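Practice record 12: protein with 2-acetamido-2-deoxy-beta-D-glucopyranose.
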Amino acid sequence: MVHSHAVLVSWIFILCFGEAWSWEAVVVKSSVFARSGSSAELSCSYSTHASQGFTLEWRYAAPGTSAIQAERVMYYNGHLYWVNSWEGRVALVQNPPVSGVASVKILSVQPSDAGLYICDVTNPNDWSGSGQGLINLTVLVPPSVPVCQLSGSTYVGNDVTLTCVSSQGVPTPIYSWSREKDAAPLPPHSMVEDQRTGSLMLTNLSAAFAGTYTCRASNDLGEAACSISVKVAHGGTAAVVGGVLMGTFLFALLIAAVVAYLFCYRKRARQRTDKNEMRRMNVDPAEWRKSSKGPLLSGDSNEHPSLRVSHFSPLV
Ligand SMILES: *[C@@H]1O[C@H](CO)[C@@H](O)[C@H](O)[C@H]1NC(C)=O
Ligand SMILES: *[C@@H]1O[C@H](CO)[C@@H](O)[C@H](O)[C@H]1NC(C)=O
């Protein structure tokens, strides 16, 4: 990939200038690996002495974009210019860069610095000393603390899957699951692990599966781990259905309570209305009650019927 670019560039120069042009005029280290937070040197050298019109340019293309889309980072034409976002973070290894070394150093590499860097040397008085080199910078990041999760219901006979994912890590971490040292032995082939995705499938659960499972995410730079506890319950689907039925039953009870409350409340309200009507109509409530549809609720009458009669009788 890098070579094919260089060959292409050298062909263009040969076609354009008809000169024997060696792509080794600009030499780069085409793959650079740097740990996040450390410094990284992007090495670029050229084989001629800078003369009138000499320029050096560094360009950068983020991962997923092509080299053609690379944007300027630095430009030198006797004066040195840095693009704002890079200034202070990157330095020339040799300043001024006119003695064959065009290398730059990123002082504290961030994961977002990963991508393609182009070192472009133009030396008009000696075109054979011009050219460009491509550098692929990979920023290495140790795995972040992974997240362990369980999906499925841990009833006897069920299958469940444990998952483990680190949100960061370059190169991509590999995952390995382990059980406690004193864990009960399991039937053969009952655990299926995928080290690439971090999943661990537990099939046909039994009490022996209970315990703590630990996932270790690791790459060249380090490792991080998470654990999850698995409890196996008996009952399987019956217990689940039982749980749902119990829930439904409780819900029905609640509804019944609400209906009963509303029923009583309305009844009391109607009684009160009835009494008021009796007062207005000047009726003996004892007589009136006989013709009334609803029976009075016991306990409602903190007024004794005789008192009520006596209360109304003077009016008759
Ligand atoms: C840069 O290097 C990384 C790691 O080796 C690789 O995955 C990636 O494809 C390379 N990118 C280019 C543009 O060559
Ligand atoms: C599941 O495990 C039980 C014992 O725990 C065994 O009797 C049964 O055959 C197993 N079922 C399958 C499908 O492997």
